[in-house]
Design a protein that fits this description.
Blueprint lengths: L4 E2 L1 H7 L4 H8 L3 H8 L7 H11 L3 H4 E2 L12
Length: 76
């Protein structure tokens, strides 16, 4: 499985937020935000929505899906 790429670090920098501050705002730990930023953990849809909503953008603005890197569908 290919992890989602994301722009959380960029949005945090634009809003001058630490990982800890963002984590508190969306109800997770700093380690969760770190793992998402590093691509070691894909957030739930609810968490992705909370992060996007906090920054006032769409999920697609933060989380990037690359179809070319995704596993190919089987022909059946």
């Amino acid at each position: 499985m290919i992890p989602l790429k994301n722009r959380i670090k960029v949005f945090r920098a634009l809003h001058d937020l630490s990982q800890e501050a963002l984590a508190r705002q969306v109800g997770v730990t700093r380690q969760t935000i770190l793992a998402i930023e590093k691509g070691r953990y894909d957030p739930s849809l609810l968490l992705a929505y909370k992060i996007a909503r906090f920054f006032g953008v769409t999920i697609e603005d933060i989380f990037l899906y690359d179809e070319e890197e995704s596993p190919k569908k089987l022909p059946f």
